[in-house]
Amino acid sequence: MKLIRFIGMVIICILVLQTAESQNRPRIISPEVKSDRTVTFRFRAPQAHQVLVAVEYLDGLQPLRLGDDGIWAVTLGPFLDTANKKLRLFWIGIGKTDFLFERNENLLKLLREKDVEHTFRLSEGGHTWKNWRHYLHEFLQVIFR
Asked: pTM for the whole thing?
């Protein structure tokens, strides 16, 4: 159940990023992994009265606060200190020309520094459905073993 919530959260992040791009608004960086191992989640939801996020190994939903800039945000963590004990799988897939590639390189560097077990898949192309289809095919086989 926790894994399903995590997958749902990742899908929401993708949809939010794609929506922001399609409306010519400044891109929201979310999730943003910081050097202190905290993670900031941001969402643009102008009609919302409340925004909640579910994170893999935190109990319950975490409320986001509405900032003066109209962006909902929350910073959680640090996470990596207990990641190997609490996560069964940390899987990352990205294309070489994906607009999130640089941020993922920073995340991977941090995961290696902290000895966090993870699976990383690098593919050709960008942030496209073709890549996501391949990632989902591989990822779903792993989680349902």
From this structure: 0.51
